[in-house]
Amino acid sequence: MNDDSLQSGIPLPATRTPISRVVREVIEEVAPDETPIVDRMEGSSNSRAVRRLERSAKRSEPLAFGVEDLIPLVAPVVWIVLTKFLETIGENTAQSLWDRLLRWLRLRRLETVPPLTAEEIESACGAVREALLGKGFEADNADRITGALKESLRRHSGPDELGSGPNPD
C-alpha cells in the first residue's frame, strides 16, 4: 500500500507491469545479446511488437536488427507465447457474453501482466518451454529461460481481486 491509500483507508489500484518489462527481465538474465531486439520493440504497443515478431518468424529471416545468423532467438518466443497465453487466460475467465465482449475489447490492447495464480504462472512457463523446445532449444536452456520467466511473473503478477494470486515468498 502506498501513503495515499493509508491516509484514505481505501487501497488504490496497483500499477500493472508491461509485458515488455517481463520480457526484458528474462532477456537480460538469459540472453543479454538479444537486448537490442527488446529495445527496438519497446517503443511499440505490445500487440504491434507481437505482430512484428510473428511476421519476422514467418519469413524465417533475421529480425533486421543486425542479427547475422539464423539462430533460434529467445526474445520472440518468450514475447509471442507469453502474450498469447495471457490472452487465452483472459478469454477463459470470462463467464457471461457481456464479460467476454468486454474482455475481447480489452485484450485487443493487452499491454500488462494481469494478476496470475501460481498455476497460471506454471502453465505460462510450460507453454513457453514447449515452444522453445519446438524451436530447437536444448532442455537445459529451456529450463533456464522458463525459470527466469517464472521469477519475473511472480514479481509482477500481484494478487487478484479475490486475493488468490501468487505469494511473493
UniProtKB/TrEMBL annotation:
<protein>
    <submittedName>
        <fullName>Uncharacterized protein</fullName>
    </submittedName>
</protein>
<feature type="region of interest" description="Disordered">
    <location>
        <begin position="150"/>
        <end position="169"/>
    </location>
</feature>
